[in-house]
Design a protein that fits this description.
about 45% helix; alpha+beta; 3 strands; 3-stranded antiparallel beta sheet
Length: about 90
């Protein structure tokens, strides 16, 4: 019988990514580490500003590569910048 544990892991990953962020009109809220960490959209208006925030967030013990990836995707989508890799 095949090992289906990867399905459970994938479901948990997807749940974690969905529940970790809340997108509002004036800010994105990271719901991680037992806290709500609000970042105003006005501080995420350029790609370098997003990079600066990712750099800052990576210092947090509760912020990992998966969250960084999802954070960047959400910001790009919200700002209408298209796919993260369009300029690559």
């Amino acid at each position: 019988m095949p090992d289906d544990s990867w399905k459970t892991e994938l479901q948990e990953y997807e749940r974690r990514m969905r529940s970790g962020f809340s997108v509002g009109n004036s800010e994105i809220v990271l719901k991680m580490g037992g806290y709500d960490y609000e970042i105003p959209w006005s501080e995420l208006t350029t790609r370098p500003s997003v990079l600066s925030w990712v750099h800052h967030l990576c210092e947090k013990t509760w912020f990992d590569c998966d969250y960084a990836r999802r954070f960047i995707e959400i910001v790009y989508e919200h700002q209408g910048w298209g796919d993260v890799f369009d300029d690559a």
